[in-house]
Design a protein that fits this description.
Layout (H helix, E strand, L loop, with lengths): L1 E5 L2 H18 L4 E4 L6 H13 L8 E4 L1 E3 L10 H10 L9 E2 L8 H15 L4 E4 L21 E4 L2 H7 L11 E4 L2 H6 L3 E5 L5 H9 L17 E6 L9
Parallel strand pairs: 1-10, 2-3, 2-6, 3-5, 6-9, 9-10
Antiparallel strand pairs: 4-8, 7-8
Helix pairs in contact: 1-2
This protein binds fructose -6-phosphate (F6R).
Fructose -6-phosphate (F6R) binds next to loops.
């Protein structure tokens, strides 16, 4: 794992966007898995702007959504699906065939997990994964205490995830479970970038990088990825020892 520090959220976001653009220039049919949330929002905006300006071929890559809130409709603005439709899929005119998002309203969520695992398996592997970190150390909805050895799965959400997750929704929203790619997918990905910004992420970044690797703080798994990067701004880095 390597650490990259940036002076601002803007610089961090530009660098993350460049990672995506560089990959697509080298490998237009790359498989890219992305988290939603506040941390990567600006990265995706920069990515879309640049891709349009530079006329990057975005018609061949496969886009995989990292996770979704179970039972939340894709038209709910707090859903991951809504986030991606607005930020990435519509602006870049991505085709349905190149996008795989979890259907969190599916009557058979186990089948939904199998479907997602099959998409990834058939593509070979994920070339680039961009993830955030939760205030409880989760990645995707790989919650504290979950296994490092899982592929896609449904999980009960941790209290912190339920509480913090309210920020994405207009009104108080009942959140109970998540459907997510597993940490096996993360470890099998060719490159993983964990991004974080702001003072509030400083304690979790410290624990993710300097703490003992443990499934009780899932983000610590990034320490074990041979091509894993933690990209953070100065505020998120403010509690690190060195
Ligand atoms: C969202 C996801 C979550 C977030 C994490 C950080 O798709 O996978 O694990 O990455 O909760 O969220 P933000 O970036 O909003 O602080």
């Amino acid at each position: 794992m390597q650490l990259k520090k940036f002076t601002s959220y803007k610089e961090l976001s530009e660098a993350t966007a460049i990672e995506m653009l560089t990959l697509l220039r080298q490998k237009p049919n790359a498989v890219i898995c992305l988290a939603s949330g506040d941390s990567p929002r600006l990265s995706y905006q920069f990515f879309v702007e640049q891709a349009i300006n530079e006329k990057t071929d975005v018609s061949k890559f496969t886009f995989i959504g990292l996770d979704e809130w179970v039972g939340i409709s894709p038209v709910n603005e707090g859903s991951c699906c809504y986030f991606f439709e607005n930020l990435l899929i519509n602006p870049l005119n991505l085709s349905a065939a190149q996008v795989s998002l979890f259907d969190a309203l599916s009557g058979n969520l186990d089948e939904e997990c199998k479907r997602m695992d099959k998409v990834i398996m058939e593509k070979g592997s994920i070339d680039l994964m961009i993830v955030g970190i939760g205030m409880n150390g989760h990645i995707g909805f790989n919650e504290p205490g979950g296994s490092f050895d899982k592929y896609s799965h449904v999980t009960d959400l941790d209290e912190t995830t339920i509480l913090v997750g309210q920020k994405y929704f207009k009104g108080a929203t009942k959140l109970k479970q998540g459907i997510t790619l597993g940490l096996k997918h993360l470890m099998n990905s060719k490159k993983v970038i964990l991004i974080a910004n702001g003072n509030k992420k400083a304690p979790v970044i410290k624990r993710a990088i300097e703490g003992a690797v443990s499934n009780f703080f899932p983000a610590t798994i990034i320490q074990q990825h041979s091509n894993g990067y933690v990209m953070i701004d100065e505020e998120a880095a403010s509690l690190l020892s060195n």
